[in-house]
Amino acid sequence: DARIVDIGDADMVHFDAQHCLDNIEAAVRKILAAGALPVVCGGDHSVHIPCIRAFDGAAPVHIVHIDAHLDYVDERAGVRHGQGNPLRRAAECDHVTGITHLGIRNMGSSAARDFADARAAKSDILSVRDFRELGVAGVLARIPKDTRLYFTIDIDGFDPSIAPGTGTPSAGGFLFYEMSDFLKAASLHGEVVGIDFVELAPDYDPTGATVVFAAQLIGNFLGYVIHARRIRTGEIAAGGWPRLRGVGQ
Q1: pLDDT mean over 109-135
Q2: Total Cβ atoms within 10 A of residue 195
Q3: What value does the mean pLDDT of the chain take?
């Protein structure tokens, strides 16, 4: 019952990163102006910066960040809008009310001071172990309910045994069903208003399994979002939603 449109790529201008980011922001603004849900497939994680900035004319959003790395660097080697900076730049946006970081582990793009800055800005940082100890219901209890949710998903948030096709694979990541259950429940917990999915590098996985995994996850997530909207508007009964252990309807 939903219409999904592939609008193609934002124009990339070689050797001018800021121009590329500006083109992405302009594209997302047009998607939002059309009343559609933007689903942006990167690219590295710098793609998130123009995506979230495009929401500045709309109601506030809470970001759910799924990643192995915090990506909260302020500046490194003069770079402020690269793949290590996106969540720091997002936290600076007035329309971002908070950030929940899920899956953070191992060596990454941020130093101890970045973690301290993120927590001072009221970010909630959970590792994969934290996520599993809390369970889906426990994690959702830490995210504001009935708010607008923006998801930024880095493929390296998942375990490289199922998604090796990325430049920074990190052992101990999420598995398919635990994240699918979370995305399903989150779609009812709040209104999903935007998604970006980044850092997929198909050439690093000659089997092609990572691409198939990413397509399946995005497809399922869109299905959850559309189904949850129909429940929220009363078009279908909540009882039609498959039960999740520990979460209920």
Answers
A1: 95
A2: 22
A3: 94
Residues 6+ apart with CB under 8 A from 118: 70, 72, 87, 88, 91, 99, 101, 110, 125
What pLDDT does 31 receive? 97
Count of Cβ atoms closer than 10 Å to residue 130 Cβ: 17
pTM: 0.95
| DSSP sequence for 181-218 | HHHHHHHHHSEEEEEEEE---GGG-TT-HHHHHHHHHH
Q: How many other C-beta atoms can be found within 10 angstroms of the C-beta atom of residue 222?
A: 18
Residue 122 tokens read as 């009221």
What is each CA distance from 39 to 118, 171, 196, 201, in whole angstroms?
Answer: 26, 27, 6, 18
Contact assessment for residue 195 and residue 55, using Cβ atoms and an 8 Å cutoff: no
Q: What is the DSSP letter of 133?
A: H
| CA atoms of 40 and 194, how far apart (whole Å) | 8
Rounded to whole angstroms, the Cα distance separating 191 from 59 reads: 12
Mark out the alpha helices in 17-127 (DSSP H runs). 17-33, 48-53, 86-91, 112-120
pLDDT of residue 195: 98
How many other C-beta atoms can be found within 10 angstroms of the C-beta atom of residue 246? 12
| Nearest Cα to Cα of residue 49 among 24, 32, 70, 14 | 24
Eight-class DSSP state of 235: S
Helices 209-232 and 176-189, axial angle in degrees (round to 10): 20
